Amino acid sequence: MVLLNRKKHHANVKSHHTSYDNSTIHAAEQAVLGCGVTVKYLAPYLFPCAIEYSLIAGAIFYKMFEKVGHVRKESERLEKLRKANPKTSQFSECHRSHKGLFVGLLIFMATLVAMSLFFIFIVKRDRRNTAITLYQGTELVLLSVSTVTCLISLFRLQALKLSDLSEEVAFDDNLLLIGLVGMLFYDLFLLVPALEAIPNGVIAAKLYAAKAIMEMIQSMLQVFFILEASRRCAGTLEHVQKKPGRTMITFLLVLNLAMWFVNTFEVKHADNHSIHINYYSSMAWKIITHIALPLIVFFRFHSTVCLSDIWANAYRFRTE
């Protein structure tokens, strides 16, 4: 009788462990499936970041390579900069920037709201056209405002004097040109099918065409502005105090952050370009977007970096 009870006890324990192991395995499988779904959803947004990381890492390693063996030269350059700016430290670093920052943040928040509405509408079949219109309208507003901002900034920075372009700034400008090539490459492929679809009365085609044209104009104008502003510096103490154009540079910097945010989500949105998928085929359009969109994201991010350098250095006395 005792032996029989022991056998029943062992059987119950074994059954308990088996059920526990099955529930654990089931929970682990559910966790793995959940991670797989999350990765699959986030992959289109994250893959441009991998390419962007590779470009930035390559640029940093190149700069490190260029600095090897030039320690004395670099220390002498920093010492000259310190001596050339004895009076500028008394002025606030954020001087003449608050208005541009405040208005830029308002537009950035409005962009976040518009993108949130886009993702609400895009999952509803009867509201997809509304979502695409909202998305393209947001980009058109950002591009139009940033184009006007570039023109005003160019005009105001003419008061500053020209100086020699350093090797570091020249290298950053070359990286910016790589991003510009990707921008123009994508917009040209975006423009051709849209222009052919306009006579058919497709509203989305008009939005795509307007967006492509505005983006090409804005990106080329912005690159020209950055190349020009990178060579500008304060020539008088009045320039250091008044900082002409710094408000607009701050505003343009935040606008580029907003456009970087929008372009990051365009990777996923590119799958909904039915006009272009029908024109190029699904595989060809995927190849185009996977080549160009990471460069566009890099262009916006690197433009922000270049503008921050201009914001910090253009209003200081610079040694030749």
Automatic annotation (TrEMBL):
- Annotated keywords: Cell membrane, Hydrogen ion transport, Ion channel, Ion transport, Membrane, Transmembrane, Transmembrane helix, Transport
The portions of this protein that span the membrane are 101-122, 134-155, 175-195, 248-265, 277-299
Q: How does it sit in the membrane?
A: Multi-pass membrane protein
Could you tell me the superkingdom of the organism this chain comes from?
Eukaryota
Subcellular location per the Swiss-Prot or TrEMBL entry: Cell membrane
Q: Which Pfam families match?
A: Otopetrin
List cellular component terms (GO). plasma membrane
Q: Which GO terms describe its molecular function?
A: proton channel activity
How far does the signal peptide extend, from start to end residue?
none
The entry's family comment says: Belongs to the otopetrin family.
Q: What is this protein called?
A: Otopetrin-2
Q: Which organism is it from?
A: Schistosoma curassoni
Source species taxonomy: Eukaryota, Metazoa, Spiralia, Lophotrochozoa, Platyhelminthes
